[in-house]
Amino acid sequence: MKNYRETYIRKAEIAQVILLQQLYQLKDSRHLFFRGGTALRWCYGGSRFSEDLDFVNPAVCTVLTLQAAVGRSRHIAVGGVTVEFSRIAPRLFTGYEGRDGYNLALPEKALLDTVHLRKNVPFQDEMDLDAIDQDKLARMAEPFPIAVKKRLAAIFK
Fold first, then answer.
1. Spatial CA neighbour of 32 closest among 12, 61, 75
2. pTM, whole model, 2 decimals?
3. What is the per-residue burial (b if ≥16 Cβ within 10 Å, else e) of 24-57?
């Protein structure tokens, strides 16, 4: 038999799913990015229950490219969001896995690119660093500048 806490969590999760489903049917909801503890639980199989739903309407989304044609950086406004195209050196263009016809960055690669391009990690308090394989991260960080490695060391201290 489930205890009170388990029953409460299940009821809260049902309410979250209903709210998300209703919210994402609204016009312009595609500009909202679901993030935080509940997003980690629902989208990535996290184990921590969170009661709140966190959203952000990002001002900048970054797209990495190997094409020199975009220059060092180019910005395009789309639906109130700035899409930033950043050229990355071919030697740094690794760390992806194919999933459903898309190349998705491994968690370690996503962290590396964020530290490399942004110089910091937004929402660091919401990161599940236990999901990062630090040995893999160290191997993937080898071709990156020393400043990136120092920033990573500060994150994991």
1. 61
2. 0.55
3. eeeeeeeeeebbbbbbbbbeeebeeebeebeeee
What are the b/e assignments for 60-87, b being 16+ CB within 10 Å? eebebeeeeeeeeeeeeeeeebeebbbb
Dig out the tokens for 38 from the structure. 């509940």
- Summarised one tens digit per residue, pLDDT across range 71-122 is 455 666 666 666 676 777 888 888 888 777 667 778 888 888 888 887 777 6
The residue written with tokens 């120092």 in the block is: 150
* Torsion angle in degrees (nearest 10) through CA of 140, 144, 146, 150: -50
Question: DSSP assignment, residue 87?
Answer: E
The values of phi and psi at residue 78, to 5°, are -135, 115
